[in-house]
Amino acid sequence: MQLDNMASVKEFRNDLISWFKGNQRDLPWRQDKDPYKIWVSEIMLQQTRVETVIPYFNGFIKKFPTVDALALADEGDVLKAWEGLGYYSRARNLQAAVREVHTSYGGVVPNSKAEISKLKGVGPYTSGAILSIAFDIPEPAVDGNVMRVISRIIASYDDISKQKTRKNIEEIIKILISKDDPSAFNQGLMELGALICTPTTPSCAICPVQKHCKAYEENVQTQLPIKAKKTKPKEKKMACAFIKNKDGQVLIHQRLSVGLLANLWEFPNLEINDEKPIEKQLTDFLLTEFSLHTIIGEQIFHVDHVFSHLKWDIKIFEVELLSSGEKQNERSVWVSSSEIKAYPFPVSHQKIMNHCLKGEI
DNA sequence: AACGCGGGGCG
DNA sequence: CGCCCAGCGTT
């Protein structure tokens, strides 16, 4: 690929776009060009596979079909629709941004780079994706797929985890992008990365832009792109309490509004150390944080849960209530096994729920 | 420029 | 078990 040769650039564009038009997958967010739906899909697709997103997208759009519907919705209902998808700040930022569009833009998604980039959760990739796909504006949309494809096309050994590399690739895309059909061009690059130019074993034999690819020419496609290794997730040992009151209700607690799993619900739990008995740490915790006098019973379950940056080792104990269990704190509530279904839980605590309430839900 | 932030699927 | 996925906000 010669970036300074117009004929070569045009051939690349045409090869990519005609391949995309003949081979693109039939995806729910490709049914129309509603900027709101494109936006929702792009947020869901951040760090998340297409196949994972599809059912969430369909359910989410059915529940919140328009900017106004999402703007007026309850945050808990939005998190419930996001439950299990991960990176929950995406959902909270999306609703905050949609509320901004609702009030400041009359419900109409803005179509300028400057305005759309101000919206919470809309970074350089997502702004370019919405502008090109929904509004046919030739802006780069550089995600992991595009970085992999371009790194191979130009045989670059730059580390794609660096911000500078992404910016360089954005400049290359500004040269390459079709001004006639920026939507098909950007989606074509991503689709190529997803279907042909895959991470470990790219299908170079059937690649529509093979003749433009320097990595293929040099047979280094499997060595590219270069990406720095991530640090291992740190382990945390947790103790968790499954407590029922005499009415058969279970105690659950809403997490803080910032940080990990913000505003999601969980069974009361704490990080434990190796210095004191787990039972002692758990009773102290339940007394201090929930004003509950308890006796710790048997360990009834165990959950290992891996996040991108940490690992939870959770031991779940059945807890007997000594005090009455009236009001605990502002962010906790006693719920029946039918009521609990309305609360958004992270997958780690869904596992606990499914085990402890087996047969009841 | 680094790090925190989920969850699942695949080799 | 490690790697990767249509990244962004915070520090």
Automatic annotation (TrEMBL):
List keywords of the entry alphabetically.
4Fe-4S, DNA damage, DNA repair, DNA-binding, Glycosidase, Hydrolase, Iron, Iron-sulfur, Metal-binding
Cofactor descriptive note:
Binds 1 [4Fe-4S] cluster.
Extract the InterPro entries matched here: A/G_AdeGlyc_MutY, DNA_glycosylase, Endonuclease3_FeS-loop_motif, HhH-GPD_domain, HhH_base_excis_C, HhH_motif, MIG/MutY, MutY_C
The answer to whether keyword Zinc applies is: no
What terms describe the molecular function in GO for this protein?
4 iron, 4 sulfur cluster binding; 8-oxo-7,8-dihydroguanine DNA N-glycosylase activity; adenine/guanine mispair binding; metal ion binding; oxidized purine DNA binding; purine-specific mismatch base pair DNA N-glycosylase activity
Q: What is its EC number?
A: 3.2.2.31
Cofactor(s) listed: [4Fe-4S] cluster
Gene3D superfamilies in the record: Helix-hairpin-Helix base-excision DNA repair enzymes (C-terminal), Hypothetical protein, domain 2, Nucleoside Triphosphate Pyrophosphohydrolase
According to the entry, every stretch annotated as the HhH-GPD domain falls at: 44-195
Q: Does the keyword Repeat apply?
A: no
Biological processes per GO annotation:
base-excision repair; mismatch repair
Which Pfam families did the record assign?
HHH, HhH-GPD, NUDIX_4
Question: Catalyses which reaction?
Answer: Hydrolyzes free adenine bases from 7,8-dihydro-8-oxoguanine:adenine mismatched double-stranded DNA, leaving an apurinic site
> What family classification does the UniProt entry report for this protein?
Belongs to the Nth/MutY family.
What role does it play?
Answer: Base excision repair (BER) glycosylase that initiates repair of A:oxoG to C:G by removing the inappropriately paired adenine base from the DNA backbone, generating an abasic site product. 8-oxoguanine (oxoG) is a genotoxic DNA lesion resulting from oxidation of guanine; this residue is misread by replicative DNA polymerases, that insert adenine instead of cytosine opposite the oxidized damaged base. Shows a powerful dicrimination of A versus C, since it does not cleave cytosine in oxoG:C pairs. Adenine glycosylase active on G-A mispairs.
Q: Under which name does UniProt file this protein?
A: Adenine DNA glycosylase
- What organism is this sequence from? Anaerobacillus alkalilacustris
Taxonomy of origin reads:
Bacteria, Bacillati, Bacillota, Bacilli, Bacillales
